[in-house]
């Protein structure tokens, strides 16, 4: 069984240039690409000032463009999901008039970045601008993981991010005998959009009740000792976060010394904690994880990202990839899509 082949950057670039030429009657002057990401471990820890360990993917979003002088922004997207290319035009924001989120929703990310861009500075500040765009224009109170890995990812490496200090360190991930398999459940439960902000609020409430700035400052023993100060649910949410931050530090160390078995065990602990304490998994993701774990050669598997659908990530021997995909597909009640990706580079300007 084969994984889907992501479109190559050069193919996407040729397609984007053609669409630009047809729309604007000239060649674009600039092209940039930004990667997708998969989080290996450290889930729902970023907005708790914790640790995360994502890697950038070979799947990219590509953007071509040219400056214009009339104060307008013209956008054209050729998303594979839409039958027709979609367009939008709006004036640049001024000190007197800000951009506002609206429809079409895909344009909100672009508008948000344009609106907040004047506040950007160094790399970490650029990631923060993109995070603000997601908060205020896409309405998701996300952490900083996605934006930092998209900017700082490096080929052949995962990135350990300390979301409190914004310090990052590269962890080599290029052993040819190892593979990272991403399995898309192809389900997305609408619950996710309301549960994410709720989880964030619950974590902040627990930290406050324990007199701490964030759950990053809380040790497991302190949480146990303060059990009476928080709700039962809040306690379980915090137990996930506190344990997950520790697991992430341990997993980064395990990966650095090539101990894939230890890494895999931590992934599985992470999944069960997300399922039972944080309650952001769903039956489809649980099925995918259990199916993967029953295949020899699989080190570990877990849901990845916000939850309530989306993808799982599995660490396995490269030679086991084909039989793992086969087995998952046989066991899964839905239709899964598979991606095998090396750890790739972050956002970059492309040569035209
Ligand atoms: C989403 C958010 C991230 C992070 C994950 C959960 O992907 O965008 O900031 O919180 O959920 O780890």
Explained architecture:
The chain has 352 residues and is an alpha+beta fold. Helices cover 40% and strands 24% of the residues. The chain contains ten helices and eleven strands. The chain has a five-stranded antiparallel sheet, with helices on both faces. The longest helix is centred in the last third of the chain and has 25 residues, at 232-256. The two termini are 36 Å apart. Residues 39, 43-44, 46-47, 142-143, 145-146, 305-306 line the site of alpha-D-galactopyranose.
Structure annotation, total helices: 10
What topology, given as strand order, has the largest sheet?
6-5-2-1-11
Radius of gyration: 21 Å
Sheet having the most strands: 5 strands, antiparallel
The overall pLDDT, averaged over residues, is 95
Main structural class: alpha+beta
Q: Note the quaternary state here.
A: single chain
| Poorly predicted regions | none
End-to-end gap: 36 Å
Strand content: 15-25%
Which small-molecule ligands are present, each listed once? Answer: alpha-D-galactopyranose
Q: Report the count of strand segments.
A: 11
SSE run: HEEEEHHHEEEHHHHHEEHEE
Name the helicity range.
25-40%
Strands, helices and their partners?
Elements: H1 9-24, E1 30-41, E2 51-65, E3 72-77, E4 86-91, H2 106-116, H3 123-138, H4 145-152, E5 157-162, E6 168-172, E7 178-188, H5 191-209, H6 220-225, H7 232-256, H8 260-276, H9 283-293, E8 298-304, E9 309-317, H10 321-331, E10 337-340, E11 348-350
Antiparallel strand pairs: 1-2, 1-11, 2-5, 3-4, 5-6, 7-9, 7-10, 8-9
Helix pairs in contact: 2-3, 3-4, 5-7, 7-8, 9-10
The chain binds alpha-D-galactopyranose (GLA).
């Amino acid at each position: 069984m084969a994984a889907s082949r992501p479109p190559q950057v050069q193919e996407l670039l040729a397609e984007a240039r053609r669409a630009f030429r047809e729309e604007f009657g000239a060649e674009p002057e600039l092209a940039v690409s930004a990667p997708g990401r998969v989080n290996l471990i450290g889930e729902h820890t970023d907005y708790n000032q914790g640790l995360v360990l994502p890697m950038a993917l070979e799947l990219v979003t590509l953007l071509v463009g040219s400056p214009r002088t009339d104060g307008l922004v013209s956008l054209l997207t050729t998303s594979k999901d839409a039958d027709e290319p979609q367009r939008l035009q709006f004036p640049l924001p001024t000190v007197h008039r800000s951009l506002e989120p609206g429809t079409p929703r895909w344009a909100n990310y672009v508008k948000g970045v344009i609106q907040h861009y004047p506040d950007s500075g160094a790399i970490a500040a650029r990631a923060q601008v993109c995070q603000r765009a997601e908060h205020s224009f896409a309405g998701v109170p996300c952490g900083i993981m996605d934006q930092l890995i998209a900017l700082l990812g490096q080929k052949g490496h995962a990135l350990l991010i300390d979301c409190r200090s914004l310090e990052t360190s590269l962890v080599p991930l290029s052993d040819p005998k190892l593979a990272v398999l991403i399995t898309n459940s192809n389900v997305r439960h609408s619950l996710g959009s309301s549960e994410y902000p709720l989880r964030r609020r619950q974590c902040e409430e627990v930290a406050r009740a324990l007199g701490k700035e964030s759950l990053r400052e809380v040790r497991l023993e302190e949480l146990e000792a303060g059990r009476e100060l928080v709700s039962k649910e809040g306690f379980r949410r915090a137990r996930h976060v506190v344990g997950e931050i520790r697991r992430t530090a341990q997993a980064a160390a395990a990966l650095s010394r090539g101990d894939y078995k230890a890494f895999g065990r931590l992934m599985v602990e992470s999944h069960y904690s997300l399922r039972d304490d944080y309650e952001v998994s769903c039956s489809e993701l649980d099925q995918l994880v259990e199916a993967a774990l029953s295949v020899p050669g699989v080190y570990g598997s877990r849901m990845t990202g916000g939850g309530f659908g989306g993808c799982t990530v599995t660490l396995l021997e490269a030679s086991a990839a084909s039989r793992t995909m086969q087995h998952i597909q046989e066991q899964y009640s839905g239709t899964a899509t598979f991606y095998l990706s090396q750890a790739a580079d972050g956002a970059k300007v492309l040569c035209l």
